[in-house]
Amino acid sequence: MKSRSLGKHGMQASVVAFGAWAIGGWRWGGADAQSSVEAVQASLDAGVNLIDTAAVYGFGLSEQIVGEAIKGRKREEIVLATKCGLRWDIETPTLHAESEGKRIFRTLDEASIRWELGQSLERLGTDYIDLYQTHWPDPETELEAVVATLEKLREEGLIRSWGLCNEQPVRIAEAARLGSLSTDQEKYSLLDREQDEANLPVCEELDVGFLCYSPIAQGLLTGKIDGKREFAENDLRAGNPRFAPAVLEAVQAVLAPVKSLARDRGVSTEQLVLAWTLQQPGVSHVLVGTRDVAQATSNAAAGSIDLDKDELATISQAADAWPGFDAFSS
Description:
The protein is an alpha/beta fold.
């Protein structure tokens, strides 16, 4: 497993991270707690040391599962990343979403961040967080105040580093100017490359780690999802236009040369996709959603794959052939 720094202010971490959204069950059709614990442990055993979760994933459940999975492990060998800024127990001026009977609100007020951090520490069974991230911007709290809060928490030893998620390039640059910004986390994959012209260049210039979420595009890039696949009613992919038959057919066409290359190399399609993603300019880490031991082991193996220039070109040509999801909107 290769490792890279989480930006110039962060620590070394495995390039493949365990993405812990799905194990919280929320918007993923539920989850089995024991299988989830075993998946986290299998990832750690396979060389993954970066675990990315969030308070809102399963409304605390994901953090609890991660906390259970790391019991008895050497804490200093694990890089724990979690997030703040989405509350389902209070109301603020900014409604983020309504889901599973709960209304989720945004806030990055200092008192709220400190309260959330305390809750996360308890659920994870630790006394510090390695990478603490704001989940979404809060229009009611100035960025300067958010940075000041995070810097205080770092100075107090409650967090080792901090990052932002779902942000704009200008705010990434401003946060880096105001404090010791380590990372930015954004959606990025072979099918979602808007960040090539947005945050990636800024992160590369400022030596800010760039963490990709959904690098397998919620399973689309495994090449295993076809029109016959049925999703649970509370799975975010059910009825999602990104999983419409025409889209699935187009994705299969794009992946055809990638699948051929994967067969030649004796690896899976998703492993090649992850390896390609990790070799894109500015990308430092990929956060891969994992729900069982088999997925955990497979995902971890992608962290040791190197692609030569011809292999990179083959996959890049396939990626460039993708017309974009907007091409399928009516």
